[in-house]
Structures are given as C-alpha cells and as structure tokens.
What does this fold into?
Amino acid sequence: MIDVRPGIENTDFDRVHPWLASSYWSPGIARDRVERAAENSSLVINAFLDAKQVGYCRVVSDRTTFAYLCDVFVDDDARGQGVAQAMVELALAHPEHQNLRRWLLATHDAHSLYAKFGFELLPNPERWMIIRQAVV
It folds into this structure.
C-alpha cells in the first residue's frame, strides 16, 4: 500500500537529490538547491512503500490564485504502482490549495497521467514567456 505524506520533514533528501539530479528537468542540480527549493515550496509530498521513500513532488503556490506542480518523481522500482497518481491526488486535494484559478505543470512524457486530473495543453501558449538562465 502506498503511504503518501505531506511535509518536508518526511523527505529523505539522500534519495530525492539523486533522483532530481538525474532527471531531464534538473540534471546535475546541487543538493543544497533541492533542499532550498523544498523549504520554499508551499507543499512537499513524499510517497513510501514498505517504509522506503519511492516518490517525491512539490507545489509552488501563493495558495490563493496559482499553483505549479513540479519535481514529480517516482523511483524506477515503484513505477506503474500508482505512486505518482497518489501524490498528484493529494496535491490537488490539499486544503491550502483549493479554489485556485490556475494549476500548471510541465512534462515530457506523462501527459496521459495528468490528463486524468483535468490538465490539458495550454490553450494559448503564445501568451506564455520564459527566461532561461544558466545556473552556476
């Protein structure tokens, strides 16, 4: 059974950091940046199977109008068991993130997972802009 827990205090950064540092969205990220990002997020969610952390995600939000779901990661050995789905369900249902005008996320390959929750492609992507900066 998947045990999904909110709270940074439940995070095993010895497991989470290598996951994120090997991901396509934050390759090589330093551990201190992973921990600082978690500390400054409005919600951190961890998933466990047999007391071992197998999943992690976080929400960046003003808790009033906007939320960004990010760093959703599931350990290879736990994929296909509903871990990501359980974490996203908790994020969307969390009482501090209700009645928001907009949720966003970015994904390379999990569109079908997020579509189950109502996420869809941006209706007007030409309105969105980005600044990409090299991190030293």
Q: What stands out?
A: The beta strands are 3-6, 43-49, 52-61, 66-74, 102-104.
